[in-house]
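Team,

Forwarding the record for the chain on the shared tracking sheet. I've put the sequence and predicted structure together so nobody has to dig through attachments.
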Amino acid sequence: MANTKVDAIIVGSGAGGGVVAKELAVAGLSVVLFERGGWARYSEHRDDELTAQRSFPLHCYFGPDNERYRRVAVDHDGNERIVLPNDWAYHNNAACVGSGTVCYGGMAWRFMEEDFKMKTVYGSVEGSTLDDWPISYHDLEPYYEKAEWEIGVAGNDSLNPFAPPRKRPHPMPAFEHNKEGRILENAAREIGYHPFSIPMLRNSIPYGDRPECIHVRNCVGFVCPVGAKNGTHNTVIPTAIRSGNCELRTDCQVTEILINDRGRVTGVSYFDQNDQKKEQHARIVILAASATETPRLMLNSASRFFPDGIGNRNDWVGRNLQGHAYCGADGLFDKDIYDDVGPGASVAVSDFAHNNPGVIGGAVLCNEFIRLPYAFTGAHPPNTPSWGKEHKKNQRTYFHRTASLRGPVQEMPNFESRVEVSQNVRDHWGVPVAKISGFKLDEDIRTAHFIADKAEKWMEAAGAVKIWRNIPDTGVSGSQHQSGTCRMGNDPKTSVTDKYGRVHDIDNLFIADGSLHVTNGAFNPVLTIMALGYWVSDYIIKEWEHGNRFGG
């Protein structure tokens, strides 16, 4: 039976797609929300670190799976190799209802005002496509607020003098620090930093008919056992479904955007849960499949109007792939600083996100989430054994005496860090896979050294007896914070969409994920992706209410 035409198709149910589904459905539009995975449940995964989103040496419970998915990774010398989702070079995002919002740590940062006008603040950067966003922080501020209150954020900006202006406080009080957090907070104040509690997409009190956080250590990379971690899967998507206007189709792989003989989008082609190829037609299509899968889908949707991929008339689709150049310092203490109160990350300083002499941009600095035993092996001091009796002794000793500080350095976008589609490798459904290549600029590494210096100073003040720094390599970055591959802008020659996320030259194709980011901020980007979901939705709904049915 043929699918009935609907008002809107949304591809991807993560931070952006879930928000758009709820907004459009509640506004009365008929919606089909496609998700390539299924529902992730704690009862099926529990605390298995070997399949957690941050570790997965075997496979990732949240998907995508190693059996059907693959990509091509390109190294510095241009050598290509096939990588599976449990390889870090895959640059994986979860494949389940809610996507990464099911298993993330939930840091809920607003970008700062400077993050939206990086070129104005810092000027041109050699080798970079650095530019200003076509919208400002103040344009997006109401949508940040809506995300915080509808999804649910615990926080308090009063102790952060660098926080961007807001009109309304967070809906829940900030989390208190555990033992490690208190030690780091006091040390930060001693050296003139300005510590505060990290804003979190977790319930510090009961909120939205969901309980408060129970502070387990296995948080980031896992499903929350009580549902206190807030994502699109347990907030906006259920609301969309309850409206009666949204149909969620799980285990469906969208493979092509359909276009008619007038150059307008008419729907998508997909494989359902039985691997049957089908079509779904709609008046509007919104892509929210991630900053790697959205450009892959566009590049695989070539036509006589767009022979190099839909929306790719000026060769910007897939370009400017960014993540974060993570850096920082680890410290070993001569006493126990661990009290088993999770999830661990609670204290931050924003002193070095901007206005740093000699470098471009910067990063927020935060203490790390509790690392379970497998991941913790990467937190040992350099040159310590990774196996055997001495390794086991170190695991037992260091686990209670080690702290980590990390900063997501804002990378400078560059044209050669990119997502392409492979000419030789295909996935389970016969579709060309994503090919990922690129590099970090010297400026990113210079900034990483600067931030690591600040982390080392903080760790010294906290009393660490041994400190070692963490500096990223120069390879392409695009894992859980991937962004930038379909940037928004006013000039079609140097961007993929307009400021409302609408693809240039196609008035009924929109994007609502991290692909839109012109720059990726000095913070975890998920709250900005959610805010952009509300921003894009607001434009579509206003047009719809004024009679614009996008040609359908």
